[in-house]
Structure formats: structure tokens, C-alpha cells
Amino acid sequence: MKKIINTTKAPAPIGPYNQAVLIENTLYISGQIPMNPVTGELVEGNIKEETKQSMENLKAILQEAGMTFDNVVKSSIFLSDMNQFADVNEVYASYFESDTAPARETVEVANLPKFVNVEISMIAVKF
């Protein structure tokens, strides 16, 4: 059965989608951008801070579904500039243990929603 997961601790969707969908033990999390869920404002100016906000939004959604980053099996990172990869990777890596980190791809794209610099989506499984 399909269960919609939403939390006020992550930004509200800005289109016709939900923050996440849980099907059985698998959670599909929509891409999260660096938006502060309290103020609705974008975190801008520093890719590390932007990445941290995106990861904190993902963390809130995982928690709402009763999961943690340990449950994440796949991540997708979208960047506006691949030259920022090292800084994004540094922040991203701080949320995972390297020996159990999920599968991942990182791609550079022409534009992202609200013209942010980073967006991250995830798939998690409750073991």
C-alpha cells in the first residue's frame, strides 16, 4: 500500500508531488533543495551550507518515516556546477559511514528548481 510521508520539518512541496512515498519498506524521497522549512527562504551563497540544508531536509523526512541515513540505499545529487563537487561531497560524506554509504550518482545539470545549486534525492529501505 502507498503511504504519503510529509513533515513540517522539511520544506513543503512546490508542485504536484509529496516529500516522500512509502511503499511497503521502501521510501522514495523527492529531491530536496536548500530551503529552510521554517522561513521558506533559500539558503544561498555557500555550497557547503546549501548542501547541509538539503541533507537536513532529507534527514527530517527520513525521521518522519521512522528511518535514518543508515536506511538509505541510493542517492542522486544534482549540481549546477561540477566544480563544487568536492565541497558537496565533504558535507554529504559527514552524514554516512564510508563502509556502509549508499550507491550514488552525481550529475551536473543546466538548472534546478528556484535556480539553486544543489538538489538531492534518496531511496531508503527499512530493514
Automatic annotation (TrEMBL):
It comes from the Bacteria. InterPro entries: RidA (IPR006056), RutC-like_sf (IPR035959), YjgF/YER057c/UK114 (IPR006175). Pfam families: Ribonuc_L-PSP. One of its GO terms (cellular component) is cytosol. One of its GO terms (molecular function) is deaminase activity. Belongs to the RutC family. PANTHER family: 2-IMINOBUTANOATE/2-IMINOPROPANOATE DEAMINASE RIDA, PROTEIN HMF1-RELATED. This is Reactive intermediate/imine deaminase.
